[in-house]
Amino acid sequence: MPTHNQNEQNDMKHFPNHHLSRRGICTALMLAVIAGNNITSAGPIKSVGQMTFADANTVIIADWRAGEIHALQLPPAANAATRPFNLKNISTPIAHALHTRPEKIHFEDMAFRPGAELAYLTISVDQGDKAPRPALVSVAAAGKVEVVDLVKTPQTSVEIKSRPMADARFWRDVPEATYTVTDLVCYEGKLYVAGLSGESFASTLRVYDFPFTGVGTATSIEIYHAVHNQMETRAPIRKMAIVALNGEPTLVAAYTCTPLVTIPLKDLKDGAHITGKTIAELGWGSAPVDMVTFDVGQGPMVLLVNSHKSADLMTVSAIAEASAQPGLSTPIKWPSEPLLGLKSTPIPLAGIVQLSNENKDFFGGLRPDATSGAMELLSIRKGAFLRLSDFINEYDFADYKYAPTDTWHGVHQMLRTDEGYPDLARRAVLP
């Protein structure tokens, strides 16, 4: 996978590294809109949910209450050197910045601004009987929180047509409309939007030209779900990424409970109803949390983080090989054989509620502290896939001495330094 300059290596959420140079397409088009004075204040923004960066200065946010998607033009930010995040409580400083209490804020989504070493978070603030107040904040590695003014920030918007009915509910109190947008991916001048529609085939993939030019296209999607042993047309794609499979730009999509599906982009046509190819059943009883693509020198990979089980690591080459096969069409043998199709590598990233590409070296993850409940914002080194300071083991005793043949001492030095323990990293230096 080719690499480019540092700005391009600072990957955006869900954006394949091997297509980062194409991010310039979105950037150039946005600049053309700005030059033509076509950016106007849309709004008001009524809710904030799924988000992604189209380029270093443009963040895209889904607004299910307004039935719109907004592109906000942020002021330029200086490039910043890579610095790991080790913030054990961002709930309190974010609540202070928003003039509320930590228990009143709900974290919706997170994305890292390319090149800036800033995490941006969409936040809903509980207002009692009123609808939650939408907010967007940035957080730096040093812990500084800044609030983005959603009224004054220049923005353009596009309407989401054929949305779920406002009064429909899941489990009595979860509005179906909250699933209007479940994920966003910007790719080659287009915005791909997964979610629900108000049609009988509710699972929908919408595509908009970006910058926004008008009404987008909508394709309804059905898949075979090996756990349920049926074709499904309602449950939406939960997380997705776009990669090249055998030379074909393809959507890799994960659904709840957890089928993995491939959909060639060329099949997405307005008004069409298509069947995605189910290439794997990755485990029942869990929902996708985030999907990111990256490359640490071993070829492009896809990492799927899940709500109730280990994360799944897959190579793009393995996904391509599986996608070239007919696809799954028979059920799992529950509970003795719960997995089918493409094999993934289980990765110990339990407890993560949001994951994003921070830069070429790190993922950034949100997770609640098990004791206090405060939200942590932490860097996780790519290739290691863990925080060493989460565990107490043999290496951590003060009198432990690394043997001259130990192969882990260098990794331990690096991770301890990453995680803010340089004094402990010195213990891993061989005599």
Number of helices: 6
- Biggest sheet character: 6 strands, mixed
Question: What's the CATH topology label of the largest domain?
Answer: Neuraminidase
Helix/strand/pairing class, anyone? mainly beta
Q: Provide the low-confidence segments as ranges.
A: 1-41
Quick one: how many beta strands?
29
Radius of gyration: 22 Å
Strand content: 35-45%
CATH class categorisation of the largest domain: Mainly Beta
Q: What characteristic shape results from the CA principal axes? A: globular
Mean pLDDT, rounded to whole units? 91
The second-level CATH architecture of the largest domain is 6 Propeller
How far is the first residue's CA from the last residue's CA?
38 Å
* Helix content class: 10-25%
Topology of helices and strands:
Blueprint: H1 6-9, H2 23-35, E1 51-55, E2 58-63, E3 68-73, E4 86-87, H3 91-97, E5 105-113, E6 118-127, E7 130-140, E8 145-148, E9 155-159, E10 169-170, E11 174-175, E12 183-187, E13 190-196, E14 203-209, E15 217-225, E16 230-232, E17 239-245, E18 248-254, E19 259-264, E20 273-275, E21 277-281, E22 288-294, E23 301-306, E24 311-315, H4 316-323, E25 340-341, E26 345-347, E27 354-357, E28 362-368, E29 375-381, H5 409-418, H6 422-425
Parallel strand pairs: 15-20
Antiparallel strand pairs: 1-2, 2-3, 3-9, 4-29, 5-6, 6-7, 7-8, 10-11, 12-13, 13-14, 14-15, 15-16, 17-18, 18-19, 19-21, 21-25, 22-23, 23-24, 24-26, 27-28, 28-29
Task: List key phrases describing it.
single chain, 431 residues, mainly beta, Neuraminidase, 5-stranded antiparallel beta sheet, 29 strands, 11% helix, globular
